[in-house]
Amino acid sequence: MNFKKAWEGRLEGGLAPAFEALNCSLGVDRRLLLADLEQDRVWARALNRAGVYSAGELASVEAALGRLEDEARAGGFEFVEADEDVHMAIERRLTELCGAAGEKLQTGRSRNDQVGTSLRLYLRGELKQLTGLLARTLEALVTRAEEEAATPMPGWTHLQPAQVIALGHYLLSCFWALSRDLERLSEAASRAGRMPLGSAALAGTTLHVDRARLAAELGFARPSENSLDAVGDRDLVSETSFALAQTLVHLSRYAEDWVLWCGPALGFMRLPDSLSTGSSLMPQKKNPDSLELIRGKAAAAIGQVCSILSLQKGLPTSYNKDLQEDKEGLFNLLDSARAVLEVFRLVVQGCEFDRGRMRAALTDDLYATDLADFLVKKGVPFRRAHEAVGRLARAAAGAGVGLSRLPLAAYLEASPEFDARALELFDPQVSLARRNAAGGTGAAGVAAQLAEARALLASLPKPDPGD
Prior knowledge:
By secondary structure, the chain is mainly α. The protein has helices spanning 17-23, 26-29, 33-49, 55-73, 86-98, 100-103, 111-147, 167-191, 211-217, 227-232, 235-262, 289-313, 326-350, 355-360, 368-377, 382-399, 408-414, 428-433, 443-459, and strands spanning 152-157, 160-166, 194-195, 222-223, 269-270, 352-353. It folds into 3 domains: 17-107, Fumarase/aspartase (N-terminal domain) (Fumarase C, Chain B, domain 1, Orthogonal Bundle); 112-147 and 165-204 and 225-360, Fumarase/aspartase (Central domain) (Fumarase C, Chain A, domain 2, Up-down Bundle); 364-434, Ribonucleotide Reductase Protein R1, domain 1.
């Protein structure tokens, strides 16, 4: 069968081959095949209720759509060179199977509202899978944080030694960052609940269809409010893309830490061999390439978000062909986020932390704030306490020793409020125990965070066995 383009009645002759190649989106939007078939089945029933399809035609179309779905799930749906996009591929195949009834399926519907609906249906499944992956990553982080709740390590600001923190507290910082990403993805999924179907090209369908019923049958919360807005609305693409990019940026920051931790200068972490690579030249190398690739994927994600926003910024209202380009970046982001989350979780579960190296890195500088707080408790204003400890730090650096090696006389010279008890502060457990405010790194603070994290995980929907 020689299947014609949807618009051939208006235009004479075929497309220029170069334009035909540019116009074809099948290489990207073929992912929407199952979502489009789901929409087609519901639309066919609406056409029957509207009097477009007889009962026999509906039965024929539904049987053909069922066959196409079987083909799609088995990987046997065949696209042909003439298919402009996934929607026209389905119409072409449907017409091959049931003739004129297949040609009627597009009655009252445009590809403008069709693609918006199918994209939302597709994203609904993708977001469900991604939130499940995020939940499993969060579970892995909590498990490791429980194991390392009291493990002291140096914390940094500006990549300089700052204060003693617990490794469990550090791992929970990653948990809370990713929990916000989970919130964003869940919110994006909730806003996917508006159904464009029935908006037609821009002015709304002329058929007497119950859009609320259509929405319910497709699992949407409600139909879109305005047909003109609906066909050009790509807010969901933008929001999802940002949420995915922010997730990858969070993962990239921790990956950057861990690349440094894996190096011999720190030696805080060892990756399993299964998440490392070697060198094609240097036999001794064990490279943290899994972590480096996470950083690289985050860089690409930022560019894709910018592209998706730039695509929309200059468009007039309603539908424009530019919007065909909204899916490639989004699909790349979905693929990257899925792959990166899985690898990141494996890193969290499989890495080894070297507690000895972490403890050995606890230099005296990390207790400087504890010394200032000691003076504050004696009634010294904080700015004067800060200055006094700063003088001690300068003296220690000049002498080439740590703060704990300075004599008590040096402390008394810096501030007469110091006494011998100040030298007892150079103990990681003492430092941690003083920081038990909500969200703090002390044992009580970490325990409270762990309890809250476990409660959050318990509140999440349980994944389906097949997810």
